[in-house]
User: What shape does this take?
Amino acid sequence: MPEPAQWQIQPTFDLPEWFTQAVTQHHQGLPSQHLAQLLWQREIREPEQLAGFLHANQYQPTSAFEFGDEMQWAIARLQKARAQGEAIAIWGDFDADGITATAVLWDGLGQFFGQHQTLSYVIPNRLTDSHGLAIAGIDQLAAQGCRLIVTCDTGSTNLPEIDHARRLGIDIIVTDHHTLPAQRPPVVAIVNPRYFPSSHPLATLSGVAVAYKLVEALYATLPDVPSQPLERLLDLVAIGLIADLVDLKGDCRYLAQIGIERLQLNQKLNPPPRPGIAKLLEYCRRAGDRPTDISFGLGPRINAISRIHGDARFGVELLTSQDADYCRQLADETELANVRRKSLQKDVAQQVTARLSQLDLSTTSIIVLEDSQWSVGVLGLVAGQMAQEYGRPTVLLSRGEDPVPSQTAETDALLTALPLSPPLFPPLSPPPSPPIQLARGSARSINQIDLYQLVKDQSHLLRSFGGHPFAAGLSLPVENIPLLAEAMNRQLRQQQLTLGVGVGAVIQADLVVTVAELGQELFRELKLLEPCGMGNPVPKLLIKNCRFDRVWHKNIQDFKRRTVRYIKTEFEIMDDTNVRFPGVWWGHYKDEIPSGWCDAIAELDFNSYEGDKRGKHYEIRLVAVCPTPAHPASDLQTSQLKLDGLLDWRDRPTAERLESATVLLLTQCPASWDELQVSLYRAIAANRQLAIAYTPPDAKTPDATWQMLIGIAKYLSRTAQSATRTQLLTKLNIGDRSLQLGLQALTLLGFEITPSPCCELFASACDFWCRRDKAEQPSAAADQRSDAIAQFLAAVREDQFRRQYFYSLPLSAIQTFAELVGRR
Assistant: This one.
C-alpha cells in the first residue's frame, strides 16, 4: 500500500498594495486576490513581469539566432542542401513531443524541400527500438542516397551512431533538448537549449519548440521561399510543449499561449487547418482552448499510437495531412489505440500495486520492478503513477530478446575503422550466440530527484539510456537488474543523507476556498495562469470540512459508445454553505470517498462537452480526500489535534486486551491508511491512547473465501434468511469492493441478490436475501463467469496483501502517520 501523501499548504502572504493593484489592472471586472496570491507564491513579483506573463501579446519572444553559431551553421548547411538538391531525412522520436517535432520539420522544411522527393522522415518503433539514432537506420538512409540528417527531440548523446554516419558521408544537424554529452559531438550543428543557463528564456524549450526555432531561423533567412505562414506550425508546437511536461516559462510559455490560440481554429473554422487534429478534438470532446485539452486529450492519444502500435509514423500523417477522409481513418485508429492503452495501463498498474504490497517499502528509496508480461508501451505511464502514489522514483522494466547483435555499436565502429589484412585461412563460422535477455523500460522521478543522473551513474550496467531529470528510458541485460536496483537505492540513500532529499508523496495545496467560491469567477481568475505545467502547476484548492453526495462510479465509454475498463467517480461536494458543486475523480471507485466530513484537495475545471448529461458546466477534479474527525461546528480544530499515545498490543494475550477509559482498542486490522486514520481520529477526539490490538490476518486462501461466500449464499437461499453488509465483511474479512465483485459473480452463478426494500444494497445496515434460481443463468457465458470469479479472487488477494502489510507495520511508522494526521 502506498504511504499517505503529506499535505502541504502554501502560506498566505500579506501582499503589498501596489502589487494587488497591478494585478487588478490585468484582471478588470473580477476579484483578483486569489490570482495575486498565486502569482506572488510563484515569484512573479515585479510589475514588469506581470504583463508578459499574463498576456502573450505583451511578451517579447527571443530570436532563434540566440542559439549563436550552432544555429548559423545549421542554416548554412540547409541552404547548401537546398542549392545542391541533396536528400534530407528528419529523424524524430515516438512520443508526443517527438511526433509533433517531426511534424513541425516535415511541414516547415517542406516549404523549402520536396516532401517525399528530397525530404523524408524516420521515427523509431517504441516496442522494438530505442530512442535516438540507430546504425541500421543510418545504413538504410545511406543506401537511399541521404546526405543530411536533421534530428528532432533526440540525438545529443548518440556518439557512436554519429561517427558511423560520418564514415558514410552523412552530415547531421541535431535539434534536441535532452542532456548533453561531456564533449560536443562531431556534428554540423547541435541546437540544444541545455547550453543556456537556467535563467535564459529559451532554456526550457522542448524538442518541438527547438525544431520550430530551426524553421523560424530558415524562414528569416529565406523569407521569399515559403508559401505558408510560419504561424501555422504553432498548434503543433503547443501540443508537443504541453504534452512533454516541460517548465512553461519564458519562450516556452509564450509559444504555448499563442499555440493554443491557433489550436482553437481547428474547431472554429470549416474546413479546419488540420483535419486530423479537428477529429481528435471531436473524439476527446474538447474545444482546443485549454491546456488540459492537450494534457488530458490530444497528448495521451498521440502518445498511444506508439504505445500500442509501436510504429508512430502515421501520427505525423494524422497531424499534417489535408485529406479529411484519410485523417478520419487515422483518427479512428488513434482513438482505438488510446482505448487499448487505458486498459493496458490499468492492468499493469494493478499488477505493480500487487507486487508492491508484498514489499517492505520502508527500506526502499527507489522502486525497481520487472515482468516479462508487461507492455513496454505503458510502462512510463504506470511508473509515473506509482512514483506519485508511493512517493519514490520508479523504474519499471519488461524483458525480451535483444533484437540486435551482442557486439556493441562502439566495437562495431572500431572494427570497421581498422585496416585489417586478409586472413591466411578462411575463418570457421562461430556457433550462433544465444539471444541476450534484455529488459527495456521507463523511469519516472518525484520530489526534484535527478533521475537521469541516477541512471547515468549506473551506465556500466546498461545497454542504452536517455532522458532528463524527471523521466528516462533504459535497457539492460536482465541479470543486471538486481545490481541496478541495489546501486540506485544506495546512491539515493546517500543523497538523502547529504542533501536532505527525501522520498514520500507530497500534495501541495495553493489556496483554501469554500464550495460557494467555486464557479465561473474563480475559474476566470485562475485561467489567467494558463498554460500550467511544471514550474507553474494547476492551482490546487483545499476545501475544508466538506462532504460528498450523489456519489456514483462508472466505466467510461469510447467514441463508439463502447464501455472501456477505466473508472471514474462522479459526485456533488458540499460544505456548511449548503451549496452543491459537481466533480469527478478519475481512476477511483465510489467507495474510496469517505461518507462523513472530509477535507479535499481539487482542481477547478470547465467541462465543455455538450453531450454531458449536465451540459457545459464547471466542475472540480478531485486530487485527494481525507476524513475529518468532527463536524466543522465542533470546537475541536484539526490544527490542534494531538494523539495521547500509541500502544502496541499485537503480541499481548487476548485476555489482557481490555478497553478502558484511557485506552481505545483497534481490534480489526485495517486494509488502508484511511481505515487507520479513522481509528486515530476516534482516539484523538476521545483524548485516549490507541492500542494496536488486532490479531494476525486471516490465512484463508482467496479460493477458500470464495467457497465460503458461496456457502453463505446457499444457506441464505435455503433458509430464506438475510444478512447485513457488515456481517458479510466481518465474516469474510474482505473489503467493500471485494464484496461487490463477489455478489456480481454470484448473480452469474444463478443467485438473485435482493436488497432490502428500505435501503440500497451497500448501505451500512442493509439486509439482503439470496435465492437460487436454475443451475446457472443461461445467458451468462462460461468465460464471463470465470472472469467475474477471477476478479473477485484478485480483489481478495489484494485485501489480504493490504491487511498483512498493516499487521506487520512497525509502531514507529504508525506513530509517524499519527503525527501527520494531527498536523492536518
